[in-house]
Input
Amino acid sequence: MRNIGGAAPGCFYIVDNMKGVLMVFLVMAESTLGIGRTRSGHSAALRPPPLPEGVHLPQEKWFTQTLDHFSPTDIRTWQQRYFINDTFYKPQGPVLLLIGGEGPANPEWMVTAMPLEYAKNLSGCLLQLEHRFYGKSHPTEDASVENLAYLSSEQALADLATFTEAMKKHLGLTTSKWIAIGGSYPGSLAAWYRLKYPHLVDGAVAVSAPILAQLNFKEYLEVVRDSLATVGEDCNVAISIAHHELHILLQQESGWKIISKQFRLCSPLDGHNKKDVANLFSMLTENVEDIVQYNRDNRAFEGVKGTNITIETVCEIMRNKTLGSPYIRYATLNSLLLDVEEEKCLDHTYRSMVKEMQSMDWKDSVGGRSWMYQTCTEFGFYQSSDSRQQPFGNEFPVEFFVQQCQDIFGPRFTENLVLSGIKRTNTLYGGRDLKVTRVVFINGAIDPWHALGITTDLSTSAPAIYINGTAHCAIMYPASPSDPQQLLQARKQVFKLIQQWLQE
Output
């Protein structure tokens, strides 16, 4: 997910006419990392929409935010970035607030896609608040382990609450109703915001939201398998054979050279280096994971490379016997993606990945480090190969990901620490047993993240919408002529729920 201000007209300039206005929060992950997809515990980030021709982006603004919301004696503050777009605002209309997730906030979401449609239909003003420790919202001088202690979903929710209260006072909105809407990790924030701050938010839309924190997210690859099977089970069979052939080649040094050449590795593969081998298998699996997670999600409008590469593309390659063995077909898929990304080679080494994650300097764009920290301290979410019900081998077990916590952040980040953080998260929010009202949970059957989400009604006031044939956050993107009927109906259903909540 991903961006609005200056002297241009904004919500700050309509104070006298906004008493009693309805406020709607749109909480979205703003990532340039692709959950952000780090090699360790990929995030599920919603990718940004494109900038329509002739449309200008709002300028960035800054809000003075509290550093530590849970230490009354700590009065330190920092500047948090936000944006405004009031193009469609009319008196008594709502204010839609997009909350940033695990990447830079991008005002493009405020001039197109679902947020813009909501603003049009509700005569609303759009606001967007960037998540701390991502984008330009730097609470501390760097992203050292000591400073990352101020990065958590709890602090992010408190940022949201503090910003809400400030905007209410500044804009005279003390009687306003608020609705939170989020996609991906901020979809979780949307539900948790309603749970923890019900006096500030009157309803929430949680899209593709992983609600349950879990160390070993082995179900992720099981859903990938099921999604590939919608094209044909022989696709999974071919991938399974390819991984088996890779495993055989790993047994001899001559095989390492073959793998290095055919998979276009940047440096020779050392089959004795277990971390490099695990990282390579994880990266090759990510090739497929990324395509499945964002399958047909209308990203073409945002300039994302390879948007025409779908599950069908993967399976066409893997079932094409004229290309050679399944192993060769798997290498062909890897080359296709390298070419699309304009990359000459694949840097498979564990050392390179860890070194990138160890950078604490903001100018090095540490979003991946920030998200990795949250997985190590709050969520887990590690998409391991531990399940036997998937075709990607067993070369990257959950231990491979947990080890990264120590290698990146230090020896005290053990599995016990990660498990403790996961337990705390589920205790704080309730896991799948969270007790909320006026929250709707929306998931797509193709999206692997639905395995940690809510896919059946919690109650009549906390319904779930499960959409067949759609992937991650599909409902958030602009409508497309190829959208399935169930997706079209879901958009109408969600909008009707929002209207209902605002009238209650």
Remarks:
- Confidence is low (pLDDT under 50) at residues 1-41, 298-304.
- The radius of gyration is 22 Å.
- The longest helix spans residues 274-293.
